[in-house]
Design brief:
heterodimer; A: mainly alpha; Serine Threonine Protein Phosphatase 5, Tetratricopeptide repeat; 21 helices; 68% helix; globular; B: alpha+beta; three-stranded antiparallel beta sheet; 4 helices; 19% helix
C-alpha cells in the first residue's frame, strides 16, 4: 500500500510520474521517469480545451470583446461567468482563477459593484471558502436585496453546510426574485435533505414538466436534483433514469458524471464507471471515482490509480489553501485503508460541510476506526434533520448501536 | 412557462442564473514547480528546472495549432520560443548590488506530473557580481490567474528549503551559502 507521506520526497524531486499524462484511453504511465524528450512530434502529451467546443468558442469571443473594452464591467462579468460555468462543468479549477483575474479590477475597488462581489462570492464558494463567500453574498444583498443569483448561491451554500432554516428563507427570496421555476427547484432541493424527499420529488417533477422549454442547463439541473431525491427514497431505478436524463442533456458535466459514478459504485456496478469517466480523468473528483472503481474491480492498474490520486492530493497540499476533506477522507478510508487518517479528515470536513456525503464519510470512518463516538455529531444531525438517505441512516444506526 | 420566463428576464437583468451548486469538488488548480540548485563547484551559479503545465501554457500562449484539443510534442516544440519568452519574463533574479542576473535557457524537456504533462524548462542563472544572497521575483500567470502557485524548492550546501510563491508572496531572498 502506498501512503501519501511516502510521496512527499518524490514530490520534492518533482519527478512524480513518468510518461505523459494519460491521453484519451491510453494506459497510465509508469512512475518516476526523469524529464524526457518525446520520441516523435506526433506524441500526444496533453488534452486541452478544444477550439471546436462551443463553450470554448464562446469564451474566446467574450474574451475578445473584453480585450477591446477592458473597462466594460458587463463584458467582464459575462466572461467571468462563462469561465466559472465551464470550469465547473469540466471540473477544472483553473477557470475560477481566470474568472478571478477578469473581475480583479473591480473587486479591488474600495466599493466594488455588487455584481463583481457576487461573482467573487461564487468563485470562493466553488473553492470551498464558505465563510468568505457568505460574507460577500451578504455584502451583495445589502446593495442589491433583489439579486436572485445572490439568494440562490446563498441557498446552495446554506444547504451544503446543513443550515436548512437559513436555506428555507433563501429559497423564499429566490421565489420572490426569480419566480417559481428557480424558487421551486431551490425548495425542492432543500426538502430532500429535511425528511420530505417525497414532497421534494413532487415539487421537482412539476418543475421538470414546466421547464421543458427552458435551457438544457436548467433541465439537467432539475433532473440531477430529482435523481438525488430519488436516492433519498432508495428508489434506485428512478434515480438512474433521471441521472441518465440529466447526462443526455449535459453529457460532460463533471458534477453529474461524478454523482452518477457514485450511484454506480453504490449499486455494485463499478465496471460501468471507467467507460463513463474515461474522458474526464483531468478532474480530481472524477479521478477519485475511477480509482475507486479500479479498486472494486481488482483491476491490475488499481494501485497505480491509487498512487496517482495520492500524488494529486499531495500536490493540493503543497500549494496550500483549499481543503477537500470529503474526497480525501474517502480516499484514505477506501483506497489507503487508513481509517484513523480518514476520521481526522472527515471530522475536520464536518466542521464546515454537512451534505449527506459529508455525514456518510464521517460515519464510515468512525465505524472503521472503531470510534463510534467520533461521529456523534453526524448521528445527531441525521436525527435532527430527519435525513432520509438510506445509506446514511443505516450507518447512523450502526454507530448508535456500537 | 413562457409567462414565467417572461417574468424572469427583467428581474434577472441580463445575466442568466448560474445553476450548479458550489458543492464539494476537489480540483487541481494551476501549479508550477520551480527547483534551483546551487552549482557544486561554482556556488555563484544556479541551475534551475521549471515545470509549467502544458494546459496553462496553452491558455496563455495558445499551443494547440490544429485546435483538436490535444497538444503534441510537435506543437510544443514549435512554440518553444514563445513559451520561453512568456515564462522567463515572469522570473527574475538580482544580485546583492541590485543588478539583474542573466537567465540562460539550456534545455526543453517534458515532465509528467500526476495531473498532466508539463514543459520542463532548464536554465542557468549567472550574476555579474558575487553575492551571498539573490533576490528572486516570480509572477508566472498571476495577471491571468491569481490562484496560480509556484511550488519552489532550493538545494544548496546549507540544505533544502521550500516556499509557495503566490501574488502575495512573489519575492524571495535566496541564500546561496
Amino acid at each position: 500500500m502506498i501512503r501519501v507521506n511516502l510521496l512527499r520526497t518524490a514530490a520534492m524531486g518533482l519527478l512524480l510520474w513518468a510518461g505523459a499524462a494519460p491521453a484519451r484511453g491510453a494506459a497510465l504511465p509508469a512512475p518516476y521517469r526523469a524529464p524526457y524528450i518525446p520520441a516523435s512530434d506526433d506524441e500526444r502529451l496533453q488534452e486541452v480545451a478544444s477550439a471546436s467546443d462551443p463553450k470554448v468558442v464562446e469564451m474566446r469571443s467574450l474574451r475578445a470583446k473584453l480585450d477591446v473594452a477592458p473597462r466594460d464591467l458587463d463584458a467582464a462579468i459575462r466572461l467571468a461567468n462563462s469561465y466559472i460555468d465551464y470550469g465547473r462543468q469540466i471540473g477544472d479549477a483553473h477557470y475560477a482563477g481566470y474568472a478571478e483575474a477578469v473581475i480583479a479590477p473591480w473587486t479591488a475597488l474600495p466599493a466594488p459593484p455588487a455584481i463583481a462581489t457576487l461573482t467573487q462570492a461564487t468563485i470562493l464558494g466553488y473553492r470551498h471558502q464558505f465563510d468568505a463567500a457568505r460574507g460577500l453574498l451578504q455584502a451583495t444583498l445589502l446593495l442589491e436585496p433583489r439579486s436572485a443569483q445572490a439568494w440562490l448561491t446563498l441557498a446552495t451554500l446554506d444547504m451544503v453546510q446543513g443550515r436548512y432554516e437559513a436555506a428555507r428563507k433563501d429559497c423564499a427570496h429566490v421565489m420572490n426574485t426569480a419566480g417559481l421555476e428557480f424558487g421551486g427547484a431551490c425548495l425542492g432541493n432543500l426538502l430532500s435533505y429535511t425528511g420530505q424527499a417525497r414532497q421534494s420529488l413532487e415539487l421537482l417533477s412539476q418543475n421538470e414538466f414546466s421547464g421543458r422549454r427552458a435551457s438544457a442547463a436548467y433541465q439537467a439541473w432539475i433532473e440531477g436534483l430529482i435523481a438525488e431525491a430519488a436516492e433519498r427514497l432508495a428508489d434506485w431505478p428512478l434515480a438512474e433514469e433521471h441521472y441518465r436524463c440529466a447526462l443526455q442533456l449535459l453529457p460532460h458535466d463533471n458534477f453529474l458524471l461524478v454523482a452518477y459514478a457514485d450511484f454506480l459504485l453504490d449499486r455494485g456496478r463499478p465496471g460501468e464507471v471507467p467507460p463513463l469517466l474515461a474522458d474526464h480523468s483531468q478532474s480530481d473528483t472524477a479521478f477519485l471515482r475511477l480509482a475507486l472503481a479500479k479498486a472494486a474491480l481488482h483491476s491490475p492498474d488499481a494501485s497505480r490509480y491509487a498512487w496517482m490520486m495520492a500524488a494529486r492530493f499531495e500536490a493540493l497540499r503543497q500549494r496550500g489553501g483549499d481543503f477537500f476533506g470529503r474526497e480525501e477522507a474517502r480516499f484514505a478510508l477506501q483506497l489507503q485503508h487508513d481509517p484513523e487518517t480518514s476520521l481526522v479528515l472527515a471530522r475536520q470536513n464536518w466542521e464546515f460541510q454537512r451534505a449527506p456525503w459529508d455525514a456518510r464519510v464521517l460515519l464510515e470512518a468512525a465505524l472503521a476506526a472503531h470510534q463510534p463516538q467520533a461521529a456523534a455529531a453526524a448521528v445527531a444531525f441525521v436525527e435532527q434533520t430527519r435525513l432520509e438517505d438510506p445509506v446514511v441512516q443505516s450507518l447512523a444506526r450502526q454507530v448508535k448501536n456500537r | 412557462m413562457r409567462r414565467f420566463l417572461h417574468r424572469l428576464a427583467p428581474l434577472l437583468g441580463s445575466f442568466p442564473l448560474l445553476l450548479a451548486a458550489p458543492v464539494a469538488h476537489a480540483h487541481s488548480a494551476s501549479d508550477a514547480y520551480l527547483t534551483l540548485s546551487v552549482d557544486g563547484t561554482d556556488e555563484f551559479t544556479l541551475h534551475g528546472q521549471w515545470d509549467i503545465a502544458l494546459r496553462d501554457l496553452d491558455f496563455a500562449v495558445s499551443l494547440d495549432d490544429d485546435g483538436d484539443g490535444v497538444l503534441t510534442w510537435g506543437e510544443v516544440k514549435r512554440h518553444q520560443a514563445a513559451i520561453d519568452r512568456y515564462a522567463y519574463e515572469q522570473l527574475s533574479f538580482k544580485d546583492g548590488t541590485g543588478a539583474s542576473c542573466a537567465v540562460q535557457p539550456t534545455r526543453h524537456l517534458i515532465d509528467a506530473h500526476a495531473d498532466g504533462a508539463y514543459a520542463a524548462l532548464f536554465f542557468d542563472v549567472h550574476c555579474a557580481h558575487r553575492s551571498n544572497t539573490l533576490a528572486m521575483h516570480y509572477t508566472l500567470f498571476f495577471p491571468i490567474d491569481p490562484s496560480h502557485r509556484g511550488i519552489f524548492v532550493m538545494h544548496s550546501v546549507a540544505g533544502t528549503s521550500s516556499a509557495v510563491l503566490s501574488p502575495q508572496n512573489a519575492s524571495l531572498a535566496l541564500a546561496l551559502k
